[in-house]
Amino acid sequence: MTPRERYFAVLRSERPDILPRLPILMQFAAEHIGSHYDAFASDSRVLVEANLRCAEEFGLDQLSSISDPYRETAGFGAPMAFPRDGVPICLKPPLAENPDLAQLPRPDPLQAPRMLDRIEAVRAFRARAGDHYSILGWVEGPAAEAANLRGVSNLFMDLLDDPAYARALMARCVETAIDFAGAQIAAGADTIGVGDAVASQVSRKTYESLVLPFEKQLVTALHGLGGRVRLHICGNITHLLPGVATLGADIVDLDHWVDLTQARRVLGAGVVLAGNIDPVAGVMRGPPAAIKAAMLRCYAAAGAPFMVAAGCEIPAPTPPANLRALCTPMTPD
After folding, report:
1. Model confidence over 64-73: pLDDT tens digits?
2. 185-194 confidence digits (pLDDT tens)
């Protein structure tokens, strides 16, 4: 099977030759080819080269366009800085001081430079790799992008004190996410990752009443555009799993705090689980033999359908041998 064939076999609940490997690589990939995070996040040519070379060297099954959470935020007008060896920085959230939504533009993904750069990455993946790999586009989820625009503390206060405003803000975020995802699917992405990390910090009640409806809107729209959906919420989302189960996401990434057996029980037999070794203690610091054993335990706990990944991004200092161990071919039961 090609990487893309085995990836879609699992999504169709068919038996692959080996389990697909989907670790998230960003700074690791940049440094692995002798570049730096600032170039990886600002120049699609570097991102594409880094992902292709890592896919070939480590045996990955998906090429990813993720670099940082601020593509849409920059499209909304936020000023950005690009540290040489760090995550891009939003210098000032557009709504941090003035919450008026009327001041927000509606970003055009084909005109906003940082959004267009991601679309160009997807287009280049398709041009260079054809149908050999799955191609992952990426958008921010409603809570994550709202936090980018307002600031995390302000958003949490909005959720408590002005839920009507929080809903209106997240509606704007979803509108842009759908536009952005549609452009990436048109460029060649078969799957869209939805990152909504800040959602892990709210209560189940707040999540289900305020955030979940907008995540559902986004997932439904992405399916309507012909894309598969990979949900990624960093942190311990055990309390959110009942709501996540209603989303219809095709793949749910799970961080290392979440018990995979419980997640399978709550999310059901149809959703693909991915994860969930601790990226630092387990992958970066773990000897290769221990990594292989941990991955087998993850699969045993989660059961099929399953894809191989760490709980979150592979840290930059991870020894290549450790990533190679994570991606050791595993045959399904």
Report:
1. 999 999 999 9
2. 999 999 999 9
One-letter amino acid for residue 145 of the chain: E
Exposed/middle/buried for 257, CB within 10 Å: 0-12, 13-18, 19+?
Answer: middle
| Whole-angstrom distance, CA of residue 60 vs CA of residue 313 | 14
Query: Quick one: three-class SS letters along the chain?
Result: CCHHHHHHHHHCCCCCCCCCECCCCCHHHHHHCCCCHHHHHHCHHHHHHHHHHHHHHHCCCEEECCCCCCHHHHHCCCCEECCCCCCCEECCCCCCCCCCHHHCCCCCCCCCHHHHHHHHHHHHHHHHHCCCCEEEEEEECHHHHHHHHHCHHHHHHHHHHCHHHHHHHHHHHHHHHHHHHHHHHHHCCCEEEEECHHHHHCCHHHHHHHHHHHHHHHHHHHHHCCCEEEEECCCCCHHHHHHHCCCCCCEEEECCCCCHHHHHHHHCCCCEEEECECHHHHHHCCCHHHHHHHHHHHHHHHCCCEEECECCCCCCCCCHHHHHHHCCCCCCC
Domain range summary for the chain, segments of one domain joined by +: 3-326
Residues paired with residue 21 on neighbouring β-strands, in sequence order: 308
pTM: 0.97
CATH of domain 3-326: 3.20.20.210
Answer yes or no: is pLDDT of 333 > 90: no
Pairing between β-strand 89-90 and β-strand 80-81 as defined by DSSP bridges? antiparallel
